[in-house]
Amino acid sequence: MKGKSKVIETIVKRYEGDTGMLIPMMQDLQEEYGYLPAEQLRHLAIKLDVPLTRICAIATFYTSFRLAPKGEHEVTLCMGTVCYLKGAPQILETICEEFQVEAGGTTSDRLFSLQAVNCVGACALAPVMVVDGKYYDGVDPKSALEIIQGLSSSKEATVEKEAQA
Ligand code: FES
Question: Quick one: 73-157 is in which CATH superfamily?
Answer without folding.
Answer: Glutaredoxin (3.40.30.10)
